[in-house]
Structure prediction request, 465 residues.
Amino acid sequence: MTAVVAGRRVTRRTLPVAPTWWADVVGGAAVLSLLVVTALWTADRGVQELLAGPATGLTSLGRLAGLLSADLMLIQVVLMARVPLIERRFGQDRIARWHRLAGFTSFHLLLAHVGLTILGYAGTARQGVLAETWDLVATYPGMLLAAAAFGLLVLVVVTSIRAARRRLRYESWHLLHLYAYLGIALALPHQLWTGADFLASAAARAYWWTVYLLALASVLVFRLGLPAWRSLRHRVQVAAVVPEAPGITSVWLRGRDLHRLPARAGQFFLWRFLDGPGWSRAHPYSLSAPPSGDLMRITVKDLGDDSARVATLRPGTKVLLEGPYGRLTGEHWRGGGVTMLACGVGITPLLALLWELPYRPAEAVLLYRARTAEELAFRAELDRLAAERGVVVHHLVGPRGRRPAWLPAYAEGLSDVEALRRLSPGIAGHDVFLCGPDGWVEAAQAATRAAGVPEAHTHHERFAW
Ligand SMILES: Cc1cc2nc3c(=O)[nH]c(=O)nc-3n(C[C@H](O)[C@H](O)[C@H](O)COP(=O)(O)OP(=O)(O)OC[C@H]3O[C@@H](n4cnc5c(N)ncnc54)[C@H](O)[C@@H]3O)c2cc1C
Prediction:
């Protein structure tokens, strides 16, 4: 199937869609793994030891907490490895939320593991907690490494608490966050050498080796191997840099066989521009025009050091890419009417979708919100979409009002939902795509819900994780 995007003919790719039962399989596998861990602990006399006396009981409970914590950490590694079938089924937003939940849960279990184990061992040896801690770290094999792992994981979790994270530059936080991998690797030896389950049971050994290797393989294949292979294969370079509006720049990218990239309108990649210092930081930008022939386009708003650098890129600059990611694609469109709500640079994936979807004239409505008229990008392209494809475009320009709303201040006389119904009368039966800053997306989502659009027909992408 083809579509015409910004005057260029584009092949509309059909991406492999994970079947709906896939969600149950992934969720079921995670729950099952926690059950298996508990069963292995039970088989290794976990319950009997729990009831055998206070000290043995504490040690046994500490062991269970440690095993569940390790299991949850490995689940997180797989979740964050960007395995295409998981990423495409759930989307980065949801995965990032689960990652946060599982991360904090596994950390609390880790604290319980350390605390209960020390108390249990101290009780058995009838010595003080500090002396027992020293004994454990200094004499048991792998425990020094485990202590280092604990320190690293504490660092990762403390810097992920919202208040601390807000104070850190994104890049510094992300770099610290990667220490979690090292933490998990350093914790393995103490499980191998002193872990009662590992030593006692062949089934436990088989289980733990399988999950560790699965986690390692998913990182090596999907986070490192696939992006490296795609970057080498497609040899993407900057073709042209085009200013769209003050502080907003489009970058056309040229590469080999781009039509073979499994990317669709609405998706994003993590980009590294090899133009000097800063190349090591990957940034997510959505496609504002999906691959067509040997070209594709992104559009970037200058919001910080690296996004500002994009305007200074030179043609010929080499680019590494990781992706495509995201599920804001046309696969969710059921046919018929579609309403797109964009705020600021959130227009990028929606513009690509407007070119791609095969709606009929007047079936598509774009509500495009910006603070000032200068901030409206793609004016000429939107005029063409209106003329050639019959898209109904409404620009909603002006500063925010006092109440949290998706409308500008001048429209505050209308309720959010009333405005939505007037601008897109058929919205209740439409598929709705939204993209913009978090607070704005929330207000717009609330209005679409109130206008009668079921959750399943609303699709959005957050521009922050
Ligand atoms: C899925 C997705 C799609 C996006 N698509 C676009 C797009 O099409 N056009 C566009 O202009 N912007 C897009 N963004 C936002 C863009 O990634 C950030 O504005 C950009 O990374 C800022 O980097 P900086 O170093 O210039 O700014 P900084 O000052 O370092 O960061 C500003 C804010 O951007 C976010 N950010 C920074 N680096 C990253 C990163 N590597 N990963 C995730 N978030 C980061 C952080 O929340 C940070 O607080 C998208 C973001 C996401 C998550």
The chain has three domains: 21-223, 235-325, 330-462.
